Each structure stands twice: as C-alpha cells, then as structure tokens.
Amino acid sequence: MIKLAVVTGAKAHDVIGFYELFRSFDGIDSYIQHIDDFAASPNAVRDAYDAVLFYFMMPGVATDEGLPGYCGRPRSALERLTQTGQGIVVLHHALLAYPQWAAWSDIVGIADRTLAAYSHDERIPLTIVDTEHPITADLADWTITDETYDMAAADATDDDEDDDDEDDEDDDNSHILLTTDHPDNARTVAWVRQVQESDVFCLQLGHDRQAWEDENFRRIL
Prior knowledge:
This protein is globular. 22% of the residues lie in helices and 30% in strands. A nine-stranded mixed beta sheet has the order 2-1-3-4-9-8-7-5-6. The protein contains seven helices and nine strands; from the N terminus they run βαβααβαβαβββββαα.
C-alpha cells in the first residue's frame, strides 16, 4: 500500500469530488491535508509518506518566518522533501505555487512560471511522447476536457526530439511524457524529472471532475 500525502491550500476546489478521486485508487492510502497541517507535522510523520502530491497554489515565496504556530515551517518542510527521496507529484495549479521561489521552480522545471492566460472547459488534444515510460505505457493519444494554461513549456532533455523548441530552455533533467498542440496551452503537459534525491512527476491536468473522471487521466495519476 502506497502511503500518499495530498497537500492542498490557497485554491478553492470541489472537495467532495477530490476526495472521491483519491478514495477510488486501489493500493493508495491517501491523506488529504492543508499545507499548514503538513508543515506543522513532525519530520517523522512527513517522512513516513512514500510520496507527496501537491494540489496547492501558495503565493510568493515559502517561508518559516512570521507565521502562526499552527502553520509550522513550510519552507523547511518542502526543502526537506527533496533530501528524503520521497516521490513528489505536482498536480495542476501546484505548478503555479510559490511563483517567486526558485526552489519550487526547480522542482517544477520551469524558471518563469508566469500564467499569461487560462480557460476552463477546453478540449485539449494530447499526444503521448514516450509510450514506454511506466506513467504513459499502454496509452494512446486522446482528447480531454480541462483547463488550459498559457505559460512557458517545461524544459526538454537532449533526448527529446523537439528539445530545440523555442519555448524550451537548456535543461538536461526534464523528460517530457505528454504534449498538446492546443493554441492556448503550453506545449508540455506532463513530465518527469530528478531533483536531488526525489523523483518528480508534473501534470498540468486536473482542474475538476471533468478531468478527474477521465479514464486516461486516472490511469496516469
């Protein structure tokens, strides 16, 4: 059984639908909690999770200073994650969290995470870039209804065929799994990378039930 922390905060969402999503996964014991609760937990509690999924959209820069006691030490808690080797999943609007914090940009793999525009209920065509990776194996290209993000693409590795795309920067650590040609969305939709000791999976999809109930989305997550 995978022990998964699911960390939320600073963004409204369909709580019932979100809980139903994570309760539906076999073999995953999910503990949904606010960032305050996660950051205020002792190291031993946080370290006990096999992986941590983020679905928050915290502003500014993570800090330990000037916070009420119940908020814990979020900066220290998040910095510790990449040292423990726990898996990290950055889901949907968590890509935009802590926009001025370089450490979170490094986890995501996008230096400038400015969101130029977004649009709900869009039909987004998706292309499987790596059909052999465990996350995307046995999947075929499909179209999902979800929210578009007009922002910079994730950096491609030298192994990716389109790593010379003008939207990419020179980074040798992100491996692209899903792309789209939607004109109002970043080209890259899902990717994996290594940050210190942790494997990181970033997935732009997942705004609401329309995505959560999509079978391919569920398989990928």
